[in-house]
Fold this protein.
Amino acid sequence: MNRFFLAGLCVVGSGGSFLRAAELPAYRRAELPIAARVADLLGRMTLEEKIDQLHQSGIGDTNPNNLQERRDAYLPTYGSFIIAGPPATVLATRNALQKRALEESRLGIPVLFAGDVIHGYRTILPIPLAQAGAWDTDLVRRGAALAAAEARAHGIDWTYAPMVDHSVDARWGRIAETFGESPHASSAFAVASVQGFQGSDLTRPDTVAATLKHYVGYGASEGGRDYSATWVAPQELWERHLPPFEAGVRAGARGVMSAFNDLNGIPTTANRHTLDEILRQRWGFDGVVVSDWAAVRQLIIQGYAADEAEATQRALAAGVDIDMSDNLYRAHLRALVEQGRVPMAQIDAAVARVLRLKFELGLFERPFTEENSLSGAAPNPEQLAFAEEFAARSLVLLKNDGALPVAPTARKIALLGPIANYSASLLGSWAQQGQPSETPTIADELRRRLPAGVELLLASGGGIEAGSDAEIAEAVAAAQAADIAVLVVGEEGWMSGENASRSSLRLAGRQEELALAVAATGKPVVLVLVSGRPLEIAALEPRVSAIVAAWSGGSRAAAALADVLLGRRNPSGKLAVTWPRTTGQIPLYHNMRPRARLSPSGEYRDGPSTPLYEFGHGLSYTQFSYGPIKLERPTVGLTGKLTAEVTVTNTGARDGVESVLWFIRDPAASITRPLRELKHFESAPIAAGTSRVFRFEIEPERDLSFPDADGRRILEPGEIVLHAGTEHVSFQIEAPKW
Ligand code: BGC
């Protein structure tokens, strides 16, 4: 018998009869509240059917770090899949699996399809670390919305993004997936991403449910080694790691993914404190918690469970609803219930949350993905234009002694380096359906823009990981023959992201040698870095004329860069992460606590202690000057409000975009505070010769309070120093007058 369930109506094929809406089981009736539909469906389910809803399989090459489970064993009762594969196949596979679920399972519960849509799906946007450097929540929101529309058009209902982990260690490859080192910025971008992905209606064909991951503390991986244990003091957890998750939950994210890491001795997959006490009870999160890939089984490797059954019991009890890919819930939950080790209520609560998400996504009414103009299609011009704008806004001009923009008088430009004519690095890790073959290289885009008569001398100088003397010599010869050299070095896409830890941030292979040899020609050299992390370039920095952090900027990274190099666009990105001089300086971040003794006490004796580039550093082709910060009043009450304003003037000859980052410092508090804490940011265009007023509406409870080690917020009277650009000013939080 073929059954297809349409909105509010059950059509029974093969000789069946049509049922009127009122005769349908309550869970099929779209007009009923979701809670009633969930309760009705749950009441009809057997234990096996419930357990299958908590199981997630992977289909297609979802993630090179994860091995596939048996491909022939997908049951129509499985609750969800992570789905990946070539764009043309994803949708068809999804609908075929869905058809099976509807036709071959007793209750016809639709399957939920998840995917890792991290920085675009078909159109690839800059990596999140780069996105953050545009300091524009609207761009992040629009980027997530664009990715959502593309992903849902391919049958993905639920994305495993945004990643909002906190990390100050660029050795950890996953720093590329973060929004940088400021908890405030990560929180703001978490909210923007959730809004962009989910929109206001999850049943629409252009929205997806969002997942905040990886909860929590994963970014504190020791030594930057992925999957390693983490030690995060409770104060640190509340100040830096939890805020973006809390912000994302409050913004309505429907999913949270528990992480891989052992957190202070209790793996996050089985951590009742973080999953139950904080996430569910304190924050009231009522969405779905999914484990990370095979993380339930990993509880055994981590030494927290003696066997699979114990791992299963502990993960579910802590609050992990869906077991991603390792099949342990399916293998053990039934016996655990029969033995009285897992209460039925725990299973019911988890299943109810999964079903609820399916109802919220409208899957019971529209289980199949209908093809639309985005399905299987290459990115359209509008999408590419957005990707280009975002890539351009994310680029950070780190150094410029005047070599950029390239002078119109240049007749020969040497375009050198292994990434000069190579697009996979531009897409970066988690490039999903981004196709290197569709992605123009920097050489393509520069060539397209150069006026007749200007020659591009192209030489790779070797590969990213290896190069020969002859290749280096060829690049040097090209530099010698040119007026200026643009040298593009950095990382393969896979060198950052998951399972991409590095013990050193130095350039791989012979790239540093290549750069030094090119610089030794005495020609002006523009160093372009394409990477998922800050790189160790201190040895090169004094020898080159200009440096651009282009990151992995996505499908249109090359066009954006070419425009910046030639002065068609004015760069405006600012670092969302501190850029160290040496790997040995890690961790080094702007919001550290003060040292006990003032400089130079305690500094390194074998080199500088300061970063190469500070958090928030980024140059422009114009100049901005900051007027004094004006405060509405010199004091603010605990429950009052205070407006701060700063006037920024574009004193140069070009239009530009300026991002104003507002920091506070609380010089004396009952729990010591960081040297600087970002509390507000805003980015806006300022035309040459004009000024713009930027405002920060300070709400003491929100902006000036801090958590204690148990997450309670403290607001204390006393001095606050406020910084913006070159300026700072002090004000007082008044003591209460009782
Ligand atoms: C990663 C997650 C990802 C999952 C599914 C894991 O290995 O840590 O970020 O969502 O795989 O691909």
In short: The radius of gyration is 27 Å. Confidence is low (pLDDT under 50) at residues 1-17. The pocket of beta-D-glucopyranose is lined by residues 62-63, 65-66, 82, 116, 160, 213, 292-293, 498 (CB under 6 Å). The CA atoms of residues 27 and 37 lie 4 Å apart.
